[in-house]
Structure formats: C-alpha cells, structure tokens
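Let us begin with a simple case.
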Amino acid sequence: MASKLHQLRAKATEASNFMVKNGSAYYKQLIEKNKQHIQDPPTVETCQNLSNQLFYTRLTSIPVRYEAFWKELDYVKHLVKHRHELKIEDAGIAALFGLECFAWFCAGEIIGRGFTLTGYRA
C-alpha cells in the first residue's frame, strides 16, 4: 500500500511539474484557438446572462423534444403492430440497441461497486 502511495505521489509530482512548464503555453493556445466563444467583457453579469440564455433556450426546446419523443414512440408502436413486415436490419438495430443498454447497465454496476467485478474488496 505504501509503495502505491509513493507511486501516486511521484506521478502527481510529475504531472505538476509538466503543468508548471507547459501550462501557460497550453492555456494561451487554448484561449487563442477558441477566441470566437469568448464573451467580452468577462464579468459575472455576462456569465449570468449567458447562463440565463442557456437555461431559457433549453426550456423552450422542451415542446420540440416532447413531440419528437411521441413521434418515436408512435414509430415503435407501428413496428410492433406490423412486426410481420419487420426487416432483418431493423431487428438487428433493435438488438444492438438493447445490447448497448445492457452494456451501459453493467458498466454502471461495475463503477458503482468500485471497479470490482465481483463486489469483493481486498
């Protein structure tokens, strides 16, 4: 355990030294590259205004997303009603989607257990 702590400390020191040497150059490059996204003046009021714009823009998009959800649901209902006309490609896409959902569930379970496969911690 002590050796892992020593390794972690060494890696943190190495990362810190790298940031001291290259951090400001990286910061300047990042700001220059993304200059079009920066609002002037960079004040608290500007940030609050942008935050409000984002919130209310997302709020106004709810009806559009609500309608899209119901269209998708109607499409799924149509597929279930006419499943005898279902193509193998559609069935494959549905199976892959279900598999992906299951994989994300399993990944979440593993993360929730602290990245252990069995739940046992040594």
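The second case is a distinct protein. As before, the sequence precedes its structure tokens.
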Amino acid sequence: MPVYNKLIRDRILEIIAADGLAYNSRVLQPKEHLTEIKNKLYEEVKEFDETTTKKEAIEEMADVLELLHAALKVYDTNFDELEAVRVKKKQKRGGFDEGLYLIDVEDK
C-alpha cells in the first residue's frame, strides 16, 4: 500500500473511491493546512522548474495558482486583495517583466 502523507486536491478521494480502492485520510487543521500548502508549493515550483514544454509549464503554473487560492482561504482573504498588493508593489518597485539581472553594486 503506497503511503503519501501529503496535501491532495479536493476530489482525489472521490476518484480513488470510484476506482474501488480504500484509503485513509483526514482533514487538516488550519495551521497544518497552511504548512502543507507551503510544502506543496515547493513541490509544484520544482515541477515547474523541470518543465520542458509550454503545456507542461502552464499546467504547473495552474497548480501553483490553485495553491495560492487555497492559502488565501486559510488567511481568510481573497484574490482581489492579493492582486491589489501585487499591483501596489509593482507600481513602487516594478515587476519582473524586463528580465533584468543584477550582478553587483559598487560600494560607496
């Protein structure tokens, strides 16, 4: 019996049951949930890093975005608030669109 011990998407248990398989699961407490969202984000970002095609990259970015939505729910906030913070930071410091890469800064 494979042991997973990880956060899964909400419908995975339905899919396992539909395949006629038995499983053990539990609902995480909010603090645990947030910890597991962070762990899963690391996993998905690693998978994004390993992509070699546009299709694979978009699939992994979608997983990252889904995890961000889950984290927002744990923090009892929403995507609009996150987007407002993103826009404010972009206006103040810029985004990452230009691909600028800092090598060093001369000391005074």
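The two ends are 62 Å apart (CA to CA). Residues 27-93 form one domain.
Keep these points in mind for the review questions at the end of the chapter.
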